[in-house]
């Protein structure tokens, strides 16, 4: 477990640690801030991070939660656990061409555990776990920042020393209360980022443990280096960014453990100077970096093999800059996106659940004023890089380089540099890079404190920033509690984003407010004339409002833009059926099925078309296909029973009804349909039992009481028939046939009374 090959460098390494503790300036010396014992500092960070996001604990499933959790079959007990290792984050097979290739099995496993413990899709448990994870990560940040800002030093007993208790507490608080983290904490899907960050930090801390001198006097432990690699792999199984911790561990080793001067090293390499100093240290560094890189390469290779196919196929609306023909346009827009990410870290006031689809128009020429923004970004970055490389102060070089490393390296997978990503800006992906921001902010505060005469005023300003961030976190968390609040909050931030208007419209439509939904769907289509999902949903509402002409135009345009859009083809078929253009409707249905083989709803609608055309065999076959694909498809079962009943095939109707009730035993509509069949077959007792059971499940259905009354009428139970006719008429005074049957019964009862008199 312990490296035995580099004993010669142990004294040098020990001296290096001693020198760092003695000669490097202490950041805490110059700042006016709270000094708390380690335990109380961590308790304070945990409490404050909890207060920021506590109000999200009883939120709903919102936005991507529906796809990643509610509609993800991998969460359910009937799905074998082994499937998690072959499916993506959304439950699709990794080998599928439609897969997003987001391989996060450990995150999905935690969702599955949440689901099993809760006994269903109850969001409270999911939210509580996210809040606990963020609190845990924030507490770990106290240790991480104490190393990054104060250096790595151990006591004689092997205990790590916190050489920067004030600044590490400040940096951890900045991290804990940063509003940009709200998406990760309040949005359940953000757990991928939280789990990734947790194992990312554990990997880093594990790597630091490798340099704790052991009793034998050896200077580093291979065991802890390997543990760090394994934890990095675990982080990557939670989210792809996790693998970047291995690169950061190598940077930390070079800068903190080996105290390399990067500029000096570059100059020597350029001049082919073979007399590099501290050769022993270089050998140890190269050995450890080789372990890290070999482990990282192995992990990436295994992941590539599991993915099976190439990178995911995203659309232009997901990331328009990546589809630009001009390399210049792509480069300038990527850099603009980086500047916006940096701005979100600096001023996290304008936050949005989605930044795609027109939210950020493309920069197409240097005359666009927004070029100034990316110029400002690179001006700042170049200034920081120059200081990190050229400063004579080794302490400044180390902190600035580590800050830039933690800012940039975890962001690389989302940078579009290596592969296209499926978003423009995503607040969740800067959860880890915000560590670098907190380092730079804290170091800047210490430099200002060193120069400031009134340190307490400066400290009060920083305290004010923390307080504002806590307030913003609480406000933003409340917006993530429901889709309505979340979507509406985005209207003022991204008014040009068609997806924002689409989601507001969809939320309104789900609540039954179709008139308001139409307004937002129309705006979504106006902003993005190729937004086929908005066209489809708008067409559906217009179809229900019997505005068939416009509905057909919208749906026809949707399938013209996206010929494989199965849902739009089916809805177009429904509209054409309503317009009595049956041949075209049939063709549309079959086109939908061609593009989506397993489409039970389309088979159901196709069956309705065939029933209208009196093609009874074809209708029954279509409905049977629907029930094969979706055994709980109640409407298809019902239509089969009713059609067989209406065509006099009572025995077959009874068999289908019994089969359906075995699969869906609590469906009152199936009980009602089968009860009608049994009544016609003179199986009165069994029919009565089913009618009563259906009425118990749905007591306000006038037809249920009316048909039970007909059964009693046939059966000769006239008093019960009279009672249920009256209940039916009370529920629906104009129920077809019920009033006539009731009048017939009354006349019969009057005749019986006369005979009896």
Automatic annotation (TrEMBL):
One of its GO terms (cellular component) is membrane. Its EC number is 2.4.1.109. The keyword Transferase applies. TPR repeats lie at residues 498-531, 532-565, 600-633, 702-735. Keywords: Endoplasmic reticulum, Membrane, Repeat, TPR repeat, Transferase, Transmembrane, Transmembrane helix. Pathway: Protein modification; protein glycosylation. GO terms for molecular function: dolichyl-phosphate-mannose-protein mannosyltransferase activity. SMART domains: TPR (SM00028). The chain crosses the membrane at residues 131-151, 188-208, 220-237, 285-302, 369-390, 402-423, 429-448. Residues 310-382 form the DUF1736 domain. The keyword Transcription does not apply. Gene3D superfamilies: Tetratricopeptide repeat domain. InterPro entries: O-mannosyl-transferase_TMTC, TMTC_DUF1736, TPR-like_helical_dom_sf, TPR_rpt. It is a multi-pass membrane protein. SUPFAM superfamilies: TPR-like (SSF48452). It is found in: Endoplasmic reticulum; Membrane. GO terms for biological process: endoplasmic reticulum unfolded protein response. Belongs to the TMTC family. This is dolichyl-phosphate-mannose--protein mannosyltransferase. It comes from Chordeiles acutipennis (Lesser nighthawk). The lineage of its organism: Eukaryota, Metazoa, Chordata, Craniata, Vertebrata. The gene is Tmtc4.
């Amino acid at each position: 477990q312990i490296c035995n090959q580099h004993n010669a460098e142990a004294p040098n390494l020990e001296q290096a640690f001693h020198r760092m503790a003695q000669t490097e300036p202490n950041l805490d010396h110059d700042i006016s801030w709270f000094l708390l014992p380690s335990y109380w500092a961590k308790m304070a960070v945990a409490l404050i991070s909890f207060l920021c996001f506590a109000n999200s604990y009883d939120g709903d499933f919102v936005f991507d939660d529906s796809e990643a959790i509610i509609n993800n079959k991998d969460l359910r007990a009937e799905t074998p656990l082994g499937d998690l290792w072959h499916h993506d984050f959304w439950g699709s097979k990794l080998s599928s061409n439609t897969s997003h290739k987001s391989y996060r099995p450990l995150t999905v496993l935690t969702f599955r555990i949440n689901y099993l413990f809760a006994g269903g899709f109850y969001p409270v448990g999911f939210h509580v776990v996210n809040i606990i994870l963020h609190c845990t990560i924030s507490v770990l940040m106290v240790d991480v920042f104490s190393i990054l800002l104060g250096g790595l030093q151990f006591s004689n007993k092997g205990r790590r020393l916190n050489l920067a208790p004030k600044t590490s507490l400040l940096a951890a608080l900045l991290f804990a209360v940063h509003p940009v983290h709200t998406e990760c904490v309040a949005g359940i899907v953000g757990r991928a980022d939280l789990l990734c960050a947790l194992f990312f930090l554990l990997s880093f801390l594990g790597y630091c443990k490798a340099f704790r001198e052991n009793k034998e006097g050896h200077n580093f432990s291979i065991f802890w280096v390997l543990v760090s690699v394994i934890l990095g792999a675990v982080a990557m199984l939670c989210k792809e960014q996790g693998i970047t911790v291995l690169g950061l561990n190598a940077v930390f080793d070079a800068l903190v453990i080996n105290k390399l001067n990067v500029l000096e090293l570059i100059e020597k390499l350029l001049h082919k100077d073979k007399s590099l100093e501290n050769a022993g240290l270089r050998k140890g560094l190269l050995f450890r970096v080789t372990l890290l890189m070999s482990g990282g390469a192995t992990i990436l290779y295994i992941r590539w093999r599991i993915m099976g196919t190439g990178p995911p196929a995203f659309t232009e609306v997901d990331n328009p800059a990546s589809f630009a023909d001009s390399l210049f346009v792509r480069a300038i827009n990527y850099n603009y996106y980086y500047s916006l990410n940096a701005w979100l870290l600096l001023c996290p006031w304008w936050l949005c659940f989605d930044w795609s689809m027109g939210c950020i128009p493309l920069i197409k020429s240097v005359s666009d004023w927004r070029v100034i923004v990316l110029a400002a970004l690179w001006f700042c970055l170049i200034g920081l890089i120059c200081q990190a490389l050229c400063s004579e102060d080794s302490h400044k070089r180390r902190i600035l380089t580590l800050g830039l490393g933690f800012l940039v390296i975890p962001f690389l997978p989302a940078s579009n540099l290596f592969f296209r990503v499926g978003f423009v800006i995503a607040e969740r992906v800067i959860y880890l890079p915000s560590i670098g921001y907190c380092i730079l902010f804290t170091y800047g505060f210490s430099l200002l404190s060193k120069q400031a005469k009134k340190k307490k005023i400066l400290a009060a300003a920083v305290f004010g920033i923390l307080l504002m961030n806590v307030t913003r976190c609480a406000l933003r968390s409340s917006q993530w509690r429901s889709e309505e609040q979340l979507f509406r909050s985005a209207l003022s931030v991204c008014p040009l984003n068609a997806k924002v208007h689409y989601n507001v419209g969809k939320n309104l439509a789900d609540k039954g407010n179709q008139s308001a939904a139409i307004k937002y769907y129309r705006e979504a289509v106006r902003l993005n004339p190729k937004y086929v999902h908005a066209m489809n949903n708008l067409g559906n509402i217009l179809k229900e409002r019997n505005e068939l002409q416009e509905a057909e135009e919208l749906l026809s345009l949707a399938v013209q833009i996206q010929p494989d859009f199965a849902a739009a083809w089916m809805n177009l078929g429904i509209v054409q059926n309503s317009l009595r253009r049956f041949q075209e409707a049939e063709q549309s249905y079959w086109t939908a099925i061609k593009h989506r083989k397993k489409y039970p709803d389309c088979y159901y609608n196709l069956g309705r078309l065939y029933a209208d055309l009196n093609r009874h065999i074809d209708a029954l076959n279509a409905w049977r296909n629907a029930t094969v694909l979706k055994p709980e498809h109640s409407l298809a079962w019902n239509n089969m029973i009713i059609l067989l009943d209406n065509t006099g095939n009572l025995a077959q109707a009874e068999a289908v009804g019994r089969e359906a009730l075995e699969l869906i035993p609590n469906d009152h509509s199936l009980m009602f349909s089968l009860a009608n069949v049994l009544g016609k077959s003179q199986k009165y007792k069994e029919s009565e039992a089913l009618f009563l059971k259906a009425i118990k499940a749905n007591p306000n259905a006038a037809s249920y009481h009316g048909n039970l009354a007909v059964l009693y009428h046939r059966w000769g139970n006239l008093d019960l028939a009279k009672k249920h006719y009256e209940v039916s008429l009370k529920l629906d005074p104009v129920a077809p046939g019920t009033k006539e049957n009731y009048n017939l019964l009354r006349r019969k009862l009057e005749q019986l009374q006369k005979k009896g008199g």
